[in-house]
Amino acid sequence: MSAKPTTEMPPRIINWMSVAALISFIAELAMLATHKVTLHKPPPISELILSLLTLFLGAGAVIYRIRDRQNIILGRWLGGICMTLGMLVFAVQSVSIHKAQETLQFRHMRDIARACLSYARAHDGNYPENLAVLVRDGRIRVADLSDPTNGLVPLTLPPQWRKIKTGEFDLIIRRNSDFRYAGRGLTLAAGGRVTPDIKKIIVLFRNAQEQINAGPLAFADGSVKYFDGLQMIKALQRCNIARKDIGLPPLSFDQPDEPAPSRK
Prior knowledge:
47% helix
């Protein structure tokens, strides 16, 4: 009897798309190492391109010669891993930057609200007429007027801003601040006490804030809270009830005001 012929297994091939995805991922990591990303310096467009290239190469590696036996190390699994890690690195970095921007946004709003409260206690309970007063007095920094989440460059003032007339300076602040001030006419209780009604009154919100959209609000007691759409509506209603009780007109986020910032 003759022996049965043995069938040799085909050799394992190298998945060159996986190799290309690995090279692209390494280039992405190298760019991250050489371009330190900060709040005011987002990832370069080339990093996004490399991330997308890694994604496409990794996806192509997964389906490349799918019927063939592939190299254990340089096969389709390598491409899939590079694709996942490449997108994960970019996504984690973007989320961390946005979280840091939101933290700074809260800090700016809180510092302004607390400065308003401090000003009131030093001026017979009266809150400032506008944010320009707080800048003039050195109670807030010019940088506090900027919202890092809107993608605009931080607000800067002219070199000789201290010599600008009060009315003109107020106009500059209202036109260029990323926040809207709503504390004009507000007064603390006798002795500078913060009453429950005062705690409900909004003194600061973002430019272009809409009642149905989520966002942070700063209150007259110096606190800052984040609200979703439904909570935002209720917070505004509570604020206007409290404003009515002390003789102030209702607050509306979309009320007419100076043009929104146009900084790029």
